[in-house]
Amino acid sequence: MSVALVLGLCLGVGSVLGPHFAKPWLAARHGLTLEQPPSAFSEERILLDARSPELSYRAASFGIQPDSEIHRAIMAEQEAILAAYQTAAEQAFANNTSELKQPWRVETFFTQTAKAGPLTSVLRSDYIHRGDNIHRLQFASSMFSELKPEGFDLADIFDLQPGISDRLDELLCRLVSQEKNRRIGRAAINDEPLVCEDDPVVSFLEGPPTVFTPSTRENQFGGLTFYFEPGRIGSDREGEYIIHVPQTTFRAYLAEPYQNFFAGAPPHLE
């Protein structure tokens, strides 16, 4: 699998690991101590557990077979992800003049959300606990197709005739508006009203991390799920927005080869 397929899954410059994890490099560069090597956790779905004075990092996967191409691609990015967080934690320590410096704690989860035919998707969720009592949640996602190992993304499944992209943006905007009304009592982003017909604000194809949604029908997708991290479409105190888009609302816009992979409904929306 090309490293390009995990675009968006890495916070930093990716590098492909060899058969052995670069334990001496990590120890020499960052003073990190690996609790166990990644290979020891393959069956338990724990990918990596590492510690340093500035950082506690743990990565785990859910629903991903240890010997699969997706698993190998994710493992190939662990060194870069860990190094990026270690560098950020070191910089935060250097800028912190307090005598009580608390290490960062980062928990990263890779979840295979759904699979149908040659298609699947992976959601990455990073829970970042900074020593200054600031907590952040970040999302990233990737879509995979066995038929396009060189790279695959959301736009590939749609027949993007003129105007289709605008209709998809309006669809997502309306669902965001519904969730905004339910949660905070008004359809607005930072007090600016959402006007989906004229200016949808959110982008369906180039917007937040997006994954395939399971279906009530076996081996099918029930829709798509969009993940807006806290602060992206509202204040931090509103938290994250997770928007489920049933396949019935966009199936007419799918390219013909992909229509057969969408049927039924997301289980929680049936």
**What class would the helix/strand composition place it in?**
alpha+beta
The tally of structural domains comes to 2
Largest sheet: 6 strands, mixed
Taking strands numbered 1, 2, ... along the chain, how are they ordered across the largest sheet?
A: 1-2-3-4-5-6
CATH topology of the largest domain: Heat Shock Protein 90
Q: Secondary-structure element sequence?
A: HEEEHHEEEHEEEEEH
CATH architecture classification of the largest domain? 2-Layer Sandwich
CATH domain class of the largest domain: Alpha Beta
Helix percent band: 10-25%
Summed over residues and divided by their number, the pLDDT gives a mean of 83
- DSSP E strands, number: 11
Shape category: globular
Radius of gyration (CA) equals 20 Å
Distance between the termini: 35 Å
Which percent range describes the beta-strand content?
25-35%
The number of helical runs is 5
Low-confidence runs: 1-44
